[in-house]
Design brief:
By secondary structure, this protein is mostly helical. Helices cover 69% and strands 3% of the residues. The chain has one domain. It has eight helices and two strands.
Length: 176
Amino acid sequence: MTHQVTVNTDLLRHWQESQEVHDRSFHFDIYCLPLKARVAHNALHFSKYVGRLARQGSSPTDGTRKTITDCALIALSAANALRLNLGALVPPTVPALQEADLLRDLAIPTGSLADAVEKIDHLEDYGNKMAESIQAIVHWVIAAAALNNLNLDAAIRARRGQIRESRTHIGLRAIA
């Protein structure tokens, strides 16, 4: 029987709402891009995180936890760009991850997202591939956080704080 990880959908909704405010305040250059460019930018971030995991390995380290946190923030941003209500779309539990599958289970939806973005360039039908890829990455984030004993709420707040300190604020009030 596959172990499951519980999802706090109320917290997921809060993260998504606060990410919208954060992105408008600190990433306006990306926030105002056309949808295809914004999702392509997110896909590049996810590719970077796959590379990070491949370089550092999948054992629980500060680097792995930072990658999971960064992936969470970009997944929330991508969901907002696509107008996905994660609180309604993500089930109350997701399958747990094994350490050996950490890299693969992020690489697969990352590749699917890149494929969907590329299909736009070729005027091909990409269906729901973008939304499905982002949902799969959110599932991965939740399961990877559990696997690595990462308090995702605290990690998201801390990472946003680091970003706030390093970026120019455009005058909108940001939520931690």
